[in-house]
């Protein structure tokens, strides 16, 4: 039987975004694991207009071709790791817009988070957990929070994320928990 698939969803799209650092770091860590397959899903590859559909995707799928491609990608995955910044104490507009375009494809799948910012992206993650619950995902407690000092040191080129053993420990706990939820919910859905 093939491994469950996890999408590492890159939640910001600015040309100079920090997000690529945690994506690169997490991809190296996931490469050391077995039992799950990981794939980076970059919102830059899904440039959707601001949502203005006649009805919610909970009822009717979008007819926009990029949104359909995005929904098909989400449907193909068994769990999600959101790489999220904190924009004004919440998630980025581009991530919220992308989440609004999809509904049934997320249902009964686990979601966890790698966040960065002044307070480790914690305020963004708290909001993202609520959104995930509304989309009927299982939002996990275990997550990675890249703190202000760690974020600043990496941004200034003084350190890399792999210099912080504590982040690796957080990631191990998060990935262990994600593996359990992904396999359990996949079995339940089938
Ligand atoms: C519009 C905007 C709002 C921001 N608001 C916050 C905030 O509320 N809390 C915080 O910790 N950082 C905030 N920041 C700083 C971001 O954490 C930092 O710019 C980060 O690099 C953004 O992620 P990105 O580089 O992947 O786009 C904000 C940045 C932007 C552009």
Automatic annotation (TrEMBL):
UniProt GO MF annotations: FMN binding; oxidoreductase activity
Domain NADPH-dependent FMN reductase-like: 4-148
Pfam families: FMN_red
Gene Ontology CC: cytosol
Superkingdom, taxonomy of origin: Bacteria
Signal peptide: none
Protein name: NAD(P)H-dependent FMN reductase
Organism: Xaviernesmea oryzae
């Amino acid at each position: 039987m093939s491994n469950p698939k996890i999408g590492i969803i890159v939640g910001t799209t600015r040309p100079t975004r920090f997000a690529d650092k945690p994506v690169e770091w997490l991809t190296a860590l996931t490469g050391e694991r077995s039992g799950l397959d990981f794939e980076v899903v970059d919102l830059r590859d899904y440039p959707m207009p601001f949502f203005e559909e006649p009805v919610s995707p909970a009822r009717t799928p979008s007819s926009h071709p990029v949104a359909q491609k995005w929904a098909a990608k989400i449907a193909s995955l068994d769990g999600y790791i959101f790489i999220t910044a904190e924009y004004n104490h919440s998630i980025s507009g581009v991530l919220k817009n992308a989440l609004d375009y999809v509904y049934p494809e997320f249902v009964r799948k686990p979601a966890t988070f790698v966040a960065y910012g002044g307070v480790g992206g914690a305020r963004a993650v708290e909001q993202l957990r609520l959104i995930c619950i509304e989309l009927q995902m299982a939002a996990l407690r275990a997550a990675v929070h890249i703190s202000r000092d760690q974020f600043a040191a990496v941004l200034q080129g003084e350190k890399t994320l792999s210099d912080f053993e504590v982040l690796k420990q957080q990631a191990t706990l998060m990935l262990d928990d994600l593996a359990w939820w992904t396999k359990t919910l996949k079995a339940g859905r089938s």
